[in-house]
Write a structure and sequence with these properties.
about 325 residues; alpha+beta; 8-stranded antiparallel β-sheet; disordered N terminus
C-alpha cells in the first residue's frame, strides 16, 4: 500500500496560493517561521509519528472545525470565500510553505500563507460548507483533491504546479468554474505558454534534488501550452455595471502576466467596495494577508508585467 503523510500547522487564534508555491512564479524565497513543535505528521492510517504531538493535531482540528461551525450559522447569502479569507487577515505571508520534506505530503498550514495556499485553504473551507461536511477530515479531502491531480499524492509531479492547470483540473472535478463571458469585459485571449519550471529547475528544491522529475514537469507544461482562455484586460478592470455583473464578491482572481514561461503572476479574492474592485490576498509586499487599500485597477497599473485578470468561481 502506498503511504502518504500529512503535516498540519495551526494558527495561534481563531479570531482573525504560477509555479504555485511562489505567488509571482519564482519570487524570492521567504523563510518559514513554523516551529518543530507545531508540525504534526500522520501516516496513511492516521497514526501519529510522535505521541507527544497529538495535542497539536487536536488543536489544528479544533481551529478548522470551529471555523466551519461558525460558518454554518451564517446567512445563506454570505460570501463564504470572503467570510473565511477575512478570518486570516494579518496572518504572515511566507513562501514555499509546502516544501517541508523530501517526501510529498499534504501540508495544512493556517499560520502562514502565500497567495496560492491562501486560495486553496479558503476554497477547501468553502467547499466543506457547501457540502455540509463540517469536519476536519472533509477539509483534508477537499484540500487534497484540489491540490493533487485526481486527488492522489504520488511524488512532487503529482502536485498541480501552474494555476492554469489548477483551474482545468478543478473545473473537471466540478470544484470551480472559470468565468470567460460576457464580452465585454472578457475582451482578450490569453494563449498559455509555460516552461518556467523545466527551464529553471535549480529554483525548485524538489527538482534540484530529483532531476528525473524535470521531464514529467516538461510534459505537463507542453499539455498546457497553446491553450486559450478569455480574460479581462487590466485597462477594463473598472467599476462598471458589466464588471459588477461578471465578477462577484469571493471570486478567485488570477492575475495574468507576460513574463516568459509563466501564466499567472498572483492570486486573491474579489472584494467589491463603493470605490470599485479590490483584492484580498496574501501579499509579499505587505508581508501578510490583506485587503488591498488601493483598487485592483490601481494595483494592476503599478505592475507593468500584469496584463489582466481571469475569474474563477467556487462551485456551490
Amino acid at each position: 500500500m502506498r503511504r502518504f503523510f500529512i503535516i498540519v500547522l495551526c494558527i495561534g487564534t481563531f479570531a482573525s496560493i504560477c509555479p504555485m508555491q511562489s505567488c509571482a512564479n519564482g519570487e524570492t524565497k521567504a523563510g518559514s517561521t513554523a516551529s518543530v513543535e507545531e508540525k504534526v505528521v500522520l501516516g496513511a492510517e492516521g497514526e501519529t509519528a510522535k505521541d507527544s504531538l497529538d495535542a497539536k493535531q487536536s488543536a489544528s482540528r479544533i481551529v478548522i472545525e470551529s471555523m466551519l461551525r461558525v460558518a454554518a450559522k451564517q446567512d445563506a447569502q454570505t460570501s463564504f470565500p470572503l467570510f473565511f479569507a477575512r478570518k486570516f487577515l494579518n496572518v504572515p505571508y511566507v513562501a514555499y510553505t509546502l516544501e517541508v520534506n523530501d517526501d510529498e505530503q499534504l501540508v495544512i498550514n493556517t499560520r502562514e500563507f502565500d497567495c496560492t495556499t491562501l486560495v486553496e485553504t479558503v476554497t477547501a473551507l468553502t467547499r466543506c460548507v457547501y457540502q455540509n461536511q463540517l469536519t476536519f477530515a472533509a477539509f483534508q479531502d477537499n484540500l487534497r483533491n484540489m491540490r493533487y491531480r485526481n486527488g492522489v499524492i504520488d511524488r512532487y509531479p503529482s502536485r498541480i504546479h501552474y494555476f492554469t492547470d489548477w483551474i482545468l483540473e478543478n473545473s473537471k472535478a466540478g470544484i470551480v468554474t472559470e468565468i470567460q463571458q460576457p464580452n465585454p469585459p472578457f475582451t482578450q485571449i490569453q494563449t498559455v505558454k509555460v516552461n518556467y519550471m523545466s527551464q529553471h529547475p535549480q529554483s525548485y528544491k524538489a527538482l534540484k534534488a530529483h532531476p528525473e522529475y524535470v521531464a514529467e514537469i516538461a510534459q505537463m507544461e507542453q499539455r498546457l501550452t497553446g491553450q486559450k482562455f478569455r480574460f479581462i484586460p487590466k485597462s477594463e478592470v473598472k467599476d462598471t455595471p458589466a464588471m459588477r455583473e461578471a465578477v462577484h464578491d469571493g471570486d478567485i482572481i488570477a492575475i495574468t502576466c507576460n513574463k516568459p514561461g509563466l501564466d499567472i503572476a498572483h492570486l486573491g479574492f474579489a472584494v467589491w467596495r463603493s470605490d470599485g474592485l479590490h483584492l484580498l490576498n496574501a501579499s509579499q509586499l505587505h508581508k501578510k494577508v490583506v485587503e488591498e487599500p488601493m483598487t485592483l485597477y490601481q494595483y494592476l497599473q503599478k505592475h507593468p508585467s500584469h496584463t489582466g485578470i481571469r475569474i474563477i468561481r467556487i462551485n456551490h
